[in-house]
Amino acid sequence: MRRITVVTVGLALLVSACAQVTSRDDATRETAPTVHNQAVTFDQHAVDLNLDNLCGPVDDTRTVTHPSLGRATVGLRRPASTVGNGCVAAVGPRGQKLLVQEVYVHDGQLRFANPAQDATQNVFVIYNPGRYNGVMTLVPTATGYADIGWGAESPAYRTTTHAYYWVELLGPGGDGRYTIKMYDNNCEPDCAGGTVTTKILRWNGQRYV
Q1: Which of 22, 133, 136, 207 satisfies CB 3.0 to 4.6 Å to 125 for a cystine?
Q2: Residue 32: which residues within 8 A CB-CB, separation 6 or more?
Q3: Phi, psi of 90 (to 5 degrees)
Q4: What is the pLDDT of residues 78-111, one digit of tens each?
């Protein structure tokens, strides 16, 4: 009788322990956090349609990383004639407008840098209005891209907040970033005989200085 009693007590303790483990497992499953998929839907049809609506039929596009929106698509339209306004437009993953900017170009010289984006996540577009190259920088904001800074200026090509004229784009360097080599002429005694100097512009978190 003693052996039977000991075995019975042992079985009872084992069943009780298993029940406690099962209870803890159930509680863990019930309180485990739910992970939601926060991926933004990409609508290729809306992207293509709205780029064309903003700029007219585009000649070239790049899909790039955007720090707030996940991805963005930038399109370029070159002018139909030898000289005139080209167009740069950017839309979000659902085709929403992020930026549209006309720029004066000569002989279709409007293109993306290679690569189009560097470690700053800025996007670089090279243009030439007829003499020197310029670089337009698309700087991400929380909702799109910063205004280039030309306002109502026409033709739009000179150096402003996020565009730099008579420059050369260098890199990306070992840090994954482009720098911009800017030229200047003091035009003394005249521009033909003036002294040309250069300066390297670097990203300071807001613009190139």
Answers
A1: 136
A2: none
A3: -135, 140
A4: 999 999 999 999 999 999 999 999 999 999 999 9
Nearest to 98 by CA among 119, 133, 72: 72
pTM above 0.85, yes or no: no
Q: Are 135 and 124 in contact (CB under 8 A)?
A: yes
Given this model, what pLDDT does residue 8 score? 42
Can you give the residue ranges of every domain in the chain?
44-201
CA distance 112 to 121: 14
Report the sign of the C-alpha dihedral through residues 155, 161, 162, 164, in that order. Answer: positive
Share of the chain above pLDDT 70, in %: 81
The DSSP symbol for 50 reads H
Query: Would you state the pLDDT for residue 39?
Result: 58
Q: Which amino acid is at 119?
A: A
**What dihedral angle (degrees, nearest 10) is formed by the CA atoms of 155, 157, 162, 168?**
170
**Rounded alpha-carbon distances, angstroms, from residue 119 to 82, 104, 143, 173:** 34, 28, 19, 10
